[in-house]
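fold-stage: in
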Amino acid sequence: MFINRINRGQLITGLALSWACIFAFISCQKNEAGTEIPQDKTYTFQRPDNFPPPTYTFENNPVTEEGFKLGRKLFHDPILSRDGSVSCNNCHIQAVAFADAQQHPLSIGVDNRIGKRNAPPLTNLAFMKEFFWDGGVTHLDFTSVNAIEADFELDESLANVVRKLNGKPEYPPLFKEAFGIDSITSPYLLQALSQFMVLMVSSNSKYDKYVRGEAGGQLTARELEGRQIFQLKCGSCHSGELFSDFSYRNNGINSDFTNDLGRALITEQESDNGKFRVPSLRNVARTSPYMHNAKFWTLKEVLDHYDNGVKDSPTLDPLLKNNSKPGIELTEEEKEKIIDFLQTLSDFEFIADSRFFQQD
């Protein structure tokens, strides 16, 4: 829900945040492998060695154990929805890298209302500058507002969520512990959710271990061939260690954009009609369906689209235009090898990380 299917076409601005002073913790616990990890490391953001610098403003909202656990509780609590029937976790499930695991193309919110865009996974949000398929929000702290207030998601007002939280005895003490406040306010609600989400860092796939020269990172000859083909055919858009340049492109899914203008809803420029953010491909083998409109269920269908299904239009990405037909020429063997490589981007440590499990 937090990176939801449609933005209302308006940037969320003007929410004044009051920042709290927060301290790190020193005690230890064990991770999944049984290794002792200092608690301040467990609940503090750490940039993976092969990742770019984060974009999130940690200086304004440093992650603490109390803040993270509060955000986790809120993420799983249907109190954020109008009728108490839907939580963030309904559409963002850890087993599929915080994508939607339900067997329907578009996520379902309050009153079984169907969304308008595919709910993408929540991973590596600390490295993103813009959010949603159309980039309508430019700070992670404000993304939760869209999910809460969208009528096809949680269908609640931020003010009423705050009222409900203040009236539930268990919550004021938790906010007091996390932020030192006596009364819950919306800025701290949003900060708590962000503290939970910024630690959703997926960086321990087989591919990552290969890049960093770690144990378990040996790619097969076929996976390496797939990587080479991927870099040649797909790497222009799905670039870098996050496997996205985070640009907005029309990839030929549609030629008629009446139902969804995409990026143009934000920029109000016809040149942005049908353009959507290039998604990261991390954990892509586990996060179907694919595309903003959930058109494809398999990676093979996605590659078939680029090979022979691209629809031409005035805003089609120039990289997909050629002399014969729009798209990217791919043989069946090349598709199979690309898929083999994409499988190496699955981070099973991330989807099994017990820090993100619902605790109560």
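fold-stage: in (second)
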Amino acid sequence: MSKTVRVSTPSRICLFGEHQDYLGLEVIASAINLRFYAQAVERDDSLIKIKIRDERLNYLGAKNSEGLYEERTIDLSKPIVYTCKRDYLKSSVNVLLKNGYKIEHGYDIIMDSEIPIGKGMCSSTTMIIVLIKLLLECIGSGDKDDPEKIALLGFNAEVAEFNEPGGMMDHYTSAFGGLVHLKFNERTEIIRIDRTLPGSFILFDSLERKNTLKVLSDAKMPVLAALEDLKENGITSVKDFYFDESKMKYLEKLDETKRVKLSANIDNYRILKEAERMIKGNHFNPEHFGSLIKAHHANLRDALNISTPAIESILETAYKNGALGGKVNGSGGGGCAYVYAYDEDCNRILKAVRELGYPGKVLKQDVGVKVDID
């Protein structure tokens, strides 16, 4: 009998740098203990038969107690043809094959998850990362223990393969795990931060689905257009304004929409750099850390317009019950938000927000993609 291979990978929260990775800027993010699981058993034919958690189980805390799965089949003996725009299971296999990995026979695969679907918690990214890790383990590839390689393969399968506007934060944070500082230049620089933050994060589900691609496009395109408009003034990046404040005068050349969105990104980059100094330094202050998260969210809400009344109600209720800061998580326009709090305040915050009708869960930092041992 063939042995069963089991792997899992974590979801993430973006602490600082939301909506900035695709601008070539920086992100500080943490992997969290909500995970996507996958297991495989070898078949004696060319079929990869996948049973994946039913998409209707899409809210935080949903249990798959009835074993509800959707079924997909990929035939390795035939060319892989995408039958929908975001055909990520097929694209994950296809990207592996395009990159020379030899998948010489089929597998029976079961995929399940604790991660809410379509809520800004990188459910699609983690699905891809966990499937790529699983297949690399099954074929005994030397890249199976290389989180950077797995992250890049995942990015290609999700973003590059379909010409979508997403960034690399989700792929790298999930693959590497822990607390990471990511710098997106010509080559992504991954800086592991050897620190476990005090207190806890509490994730809340607004129960609102979101249009990720539209939100990303509406937030990204005006900023890129603004930077293009200011090229003649020597502006090539949001960083230019941070390192030379005299260049802020050029913002007046932009129309209101571009000016507001670019200004918010400049301020959020400043907030990230301030948070970086504190997180990596010797004097971590939870109240100040929370206030920086809160300020980051204010820019996302007021300039990028990615919050919703439900998310604002969640955050305000959490603040009244002791939360130190909070923000929308992921692309926004619905989905999840989180707050940061002292451990002793978590139960009170959870109870108050749950009374509004929104599910929540206390989160901790977690490790990256890995093999699970029985």
